[in-house]
Design brief:
The chain is mostly helical. Helices cover 55% and strands 0% of the residues. The protein is elongated.
Length: 172
């Protein structure tokens, strides 16, 4: 029975024909030979040993850890997808802005080319009959005589207006 107690699964000495070749230094009890030198195990016990034993707690922990890892990886992938979409939207908006600025510049150049001062003067002379003012058309104002102030008074004042003016002059 030392076979079952000492876990001698790899003791090849059981299969030797010479009994002196066995090394029994590891076992305090002498090993007894069985019939045919092979230890037989019942079928039921063999099937139990072959079957994998599942621990429900280990299975639950493994499943929970796997779910957490999958959730973290899915969150990272989702975040990267959103970041990529936002970067693409920014790039599209920048392209549209550059195109709009280019179109604005082209339109501004067309307007500037169409409405130069020479073209406007020509249009005014030909279509509207306008000409530049000559010196004979210019009127000069002379302010060298000094400043003058004139008091304009109403001649049609009523008596009540003169009384009101007299009273207001007393207060001021």
């Amino acid at each position: 029975m030392t076979f079952f107690k000492d876990n001698n699964a790899y003791d090849i000495s059981f299969f030797d024909t010479d009994s002196t070749a066995r090394d029994i230094s590891y076992s305090p009890e002498p090993v007894r030979k069985k019939k045919g030198k092979v230890v037989r195990m019942p079928r039921r016990k063999r099937e139990q040993n072959r079957r994998r034993k599942h621990n429900p707690l280990k299975l639950a922990v493994g499943f929970a850890l796997s779910a957490i890892v999958v959730a973290v990886v899915a969150t990272m992938i989702y975040g990267q997808v959103q970041l990529t979409e936002l970067n693409q939207n920014i790039a599209d908006a920048q392209d549209m802005l550059e195109n709009s600025q280019s179109e604005y510049t082209q339109m501004q150049m067309k307007v500037d080319a169409k409405y130069t001062t020479a073209i406007v003067e020509e249009y005014a002379q030909d279509k509207l009959g306008m000409y530049k003012a000559s010196n004979s058309q210019k009127e000069f104002v002379d302010l060298s005589s000094g400043d003058k102030a004139e008091v304009v008074s109403d001649a049609d004042k009523s008596i009540f207006d003169t009384i009101a003016d007299a009273i207001s002059s007393l207060w001021s």
